[in-house]
Amino acid sequence: MKNIIKKSQINLIWDIDDLPIRFPTKIKNAYEKIYLKNRKNYTNWVDKIGKKSSNNIDWWMTSTSFRNPYVSNLLNYLCVIDTLKVLKTENISLHTDSKVFGSLITKIFGNSNIKVKVKSKDKRTLTKIKNYLKSCIYQLFIFLFIKFLKKKEKFKNREIVLIDKFITLKKKQNLGYFPEFHNFKNVRIVPTFIPTLNLVKLLRIFSYINNNPHKFIFKEQYLNFKDLFYSFTHIIRRKQFLKIRFNYKKINISELIHNELDNYDDFYSINNGLLNFRFFYRLSKDGINVSKSFNWFENQIIDKGWNLGFRKYFPKNQLNSYGYQDFNKHFNLISNSPSNLEKKCKVIPNKIIIISNLFKRITNEFVKNKLIIGQSERFKNLSNIKLVPFKKRKKILIILSGIKKIDKELINIVIKTCKLSKNIQMYVKPHPILEIEKIISKNYLPMNMILYYGDLKKILRESLITITAGPSSALLESVSFGSYNILPKIECGTINNAQIFKLKKNEYSLINNSKELKIKINQIIYNKSKIKMKKRLVINFKSVRLKNLI
After folding, report:
1. Which in 197, 457, 504, 534 has the greatest CB count within 10 A?
2. Cα(326)–Cα(136) distance, integer angstroms
């Protein structure tokens, strides 16, 4: 007679560093409920633990204060703790990359059926040091380059308006950050460069600036070596936070937070955040009157330095602080929505410019902000699109997000679907920041899976179905083109992204795997004459023009 294994004896193997779509079903269902509930609780908790340090610019340069789940694992860790409390009677083998988190789980649940396995050795120290040195060398090079080659502009008895703008090697991308302001004599663009130690690329970026009709000023023209030293020594000053005790629901998680605080992998952002802050300090010392500030506002570390710098050192004009959000809102990008403490401490702009009425609710999710529905430069062409009738459309389009982990999972689902149904042809649009070869070798792509590098809008107007996941503008554009959206439940809260756009049940579907994707695609193809899809006007093209705010 065969041995019968009782349900309670079956091990649930849970790799907490995987995406939720890969969690065991029982764990995934419990985890997602807790994740959605913890979203606001987590934001309030981060505010609470940061309150004592909130007047210190160095606190706002930490990933702990950032609240970005794509940068920090903290929200995931807290949700894991709460999930294990619910499932503590289950036999769970928990796998984690973090030795510190593994030790914490063993300490909390030592007498339960939860066993911990640490997968790999922590190599973060070498990466951290390497990134720190690269960032410092790059910043020092930029500083010296501009100091010697760019003359400081004088603004005696003149008010100026400063606009924060990223500058890349891609001219089309540069044009998407803000409308053109070169006709305004008092407007100056303050560039933030995408980091590269390639001298040729840097020279090309400066060539672009020199041939641009806009007027630029550079932070480095006003900063000095003391400011660079201040920025570079942040790693020493942040050790002050390691003396603080941190509790989560009466559990001492200090070691976990200290490990998080010891992480400064993205020192480039920290550098720029601190130098933005010091830039406004130097401008005020030089007697320059900055009357208004426009920040490309993703509520990142860089932005916090910019906004706090302007609002602190130009207090008479601090209400003229604007943050421009000319992008889609993604449910899991929690950091895009300001918190109460961030607002109170003035590390966010006084007024936030969003591009759709649909984004009001999520922007004000944690605290009420002053919102302006403003023009969209990036999506202005959505106003005059001519659509192919839904019944005549044939293409199936996969749009990648640029988040490697999510894109890899989406690609794997699609590959399996293509192999299950070889008569289905799918087009894959890679994200410009992430080459397809960094996700998967082209040799592994089936014949009915075609890479598309052309204009996204051109293929969207012909797309019957759009499949996407992760934080990008894909859903906004797909909805605008009246395509049927299939959203794989790769992350928690996938349905909430559909709800942001108030999609009806006949306009989208959620799927869990390749078999469900195959079935859903065939259903839509077979029933497309019965499906009623309309172009949606997501962007309000009669909204406030940015030039009217200057």
Report:
1. 457
2. 30
- Is 332 a domain residue? yes
56 and 161 both lie in a single domain: no
Q: Is 133 helix (H, G, I), strand (E, B) or coil?
A: helix
Please list the pLDDT of the chain residue by residue as tens digits (550 residues): 333 334 455 589 999 999 999 999 999 999 999 999 999 999 999 999 999 999 999 999 999 999 999 999 999 999 999 999 999 889 999 999 999 999 999 999 987 889 999 987 666 677 888 889 999 999 998 999 898 888 888 887 789 999 998 887 666 666 667 778 878 889 999 998 877 666 777 777 777 787 787 888 999 999 999 999 999 999 999 999 999 999 999 999 999 999 999 888 889 999 999 999 999 999 999 999 999 999 999 999 999 999 999 999 999 999 999 999 999 999 999 999 999 999 999 999 999 999 999 999 999 999 999 999 999 989 988 877 888 999 999 999 999 999 999 999 999 999 999 999 989 999 999 998 899 999 999 999 999 999 999 999 999 999 999 999 999 999 999 999 999 999 999 999 999 999 999 999 999 999 999 999 999 999 999 999 988 887 788 888 789 999 999 8
* pTM of the complete model beyond 0.85: yes
Residues 215 and 106 in one domain: no
Question: What is the residue whose two structure tokens read 């040729």?
Answer: 200
Q: Which domain holds residue 59?
A: 1-123+224-272
Q: Residue 73: is it exposed, middle or buried by C-beta count within 10 angstroms (0-12/13-18/19+)?
A: buried
Residue 73 corresponds to which tokens in the numbers above?
A: 């694992």
Is residue 545 a part of any domain in this protein?
no
Do 442 and 421 belong to one domain?
A: yes
Domain count, the chain: 3
Residue 257 to residue 101: CA distance in whole angstroms: 10
Q: Give the CATH number, domain containing residue 365.
A: 3.40.50
Give the integer Cα–Cα distance in Å for 390 and 463: 8
Is the same domain home to 141 and 155?
yes
